TrEMBL record:
InterPro entries: NA-bd_OB-fold (IPR012340), RNA_ligase_dom_REL/Rnl2 (IPR021122), RNA_ligase_DRB0094 (IPR012646). This is RNA ligase domain-containing protein. It holds the Pfam family RNA_ligase. It comes from marine sediment metagenome. Residues 149-313 form the RNA ligase domain.
């Protein structure tokens, strides 16, 4: 969907701000992230590698101070969120350079688990354009939105990315990366089998791609799923050819489908939207916090550099507990 990497570890310039509750700590802002550091370790103008949350660092000398805690998370330090990690920049590194590969850092990928299979054989993709689904990080690119622009904020569900389409009277079920051969034990085929309205809709709307999330007894947030009703599905996008439908159009033509909950619709307000990512899930039966939210304009548009304008916020509360 775009060529910009979703997860990077960039060189940034340090600017220290006072920590309101700790004399020995300072705060450094990287985009819309906030990272706490020991004041004596840094000076304004220093270059650092910012390692965002959900990075996994290697077991090397640079990171031995972390011990076994090699997955970077968020936590509160003296009442302020510290999200991610700052380390001194490698010698010769340039401002803005991505050092992820150089440092051997990888993006954390949560394991999908449950009474189903996620492997099995793949099949040839259906005819047409049905890309992998990627969403960039709001905390890095929030300036894509203008103050007051009408946006929608939907719940980011924690599960497994799923896509479905009917082409030439053949049903296709796919993960984010692959289209899967029919298997009654496969997660994505189980979703189709347990949601007959989804298959009926797809057969009535040949060639339109449904993108959504398979969730429940799938990841560590369960959304009220129980053993006899363990897999849910929620739509978040409809693709018509190479065109993503506007929010209102998609919700209208896809009215028979289950959808991710709408958190907010109205003028863009960055601070207000960041706070929404720290709330509780709106999925009926869920009794836990959100994973986060997704923000996009009511009317679809693209950015010349980054492509489709749609950004995700993973909540600090989720990052600290997952």
């Amino acid at each position: 969907m775009f060529n910009t990497p979703e997860h990077t570890c960039d060189i940034v310039e340090v600017r220290l701000e006072p920590h309101p509750n700790a004399d020995k700590l300072s705060l450094v802002r990287v985009g819309d992230y906030q990272c706490a550091v020991r004041t004596t370790d840094w000076s304004d103008g220093d270059l650092a590698v910012f390692i965002p949350p959900d990075s996994v660092v290697p077991d090397t000398k640079e990171f031995e101070f972390l011990g076994k805690h090699r997955r970077i998370k968020a936590r509160k330090l003296r009442g302020e969120w510290s999200v991610g990690l700052l380390i001194p920049a490698p010698v010769g590194a340039d401002l803005g350079q991505d050092c992820m590969e150089m440092l051997g850092i990888v993006h954390y990928e949560p394991q999908v688990h449950g009474h189903f299979s996620t492997g099995g054989d793949n099949v040839t993709p259906p005819e047409g354009f049905f890309p992998k689904y990627d969403v960039l990080n709001f905390r890095k690119y929030s300036d894509l939105f203008g103050d007051g622009e009408e946006v929608v904020v939907t719940e980011k569900i924690h599960g497994a990315n799923a896509r479905f389409v009917c082409v030439n009277d053949t049903m296709y079920c796919g993960s984010r990366s692959n289209w899967k051969r029919m298997d009654p034990n496969n997660l994505w085929w189980k979703v189709l089998e347990r949601h007959p309205a989804l298959e009926a809709w797809l057969r009535h709307n040949y060639g339109w791609g449904i993108y959504g999330e398979a969730f429940g007894q799938v990841q560590n947030l369960k959304y009220g799923a129980v053993p006899d009703n363990d897999i849910f599905f929620a739509t978040f996008d409809i693709l018509d050819g190479n065109r993503w439908m506007d929010f209102d159009e998609a919700r209208s033509v896809g009215a028979p489908l289950p959808w991710v909950p709408l958190v907010y619709r109205g003028p863009f307000d960055k601070d207000k939207i960041l706070a929404m990512a720290e709330g509780d899930s709106l999925w009926p039966g869920a009794n836990h916090h959100l994973e986060g939210v997704v923000v996009k304009p009511v009317k679809e548009r693209t950015d010349r550099r980054l492509g489709r304008v749609q950004l995700k916020i993973v909540g600090n509360k989720y990052l600290s507990k997952s």
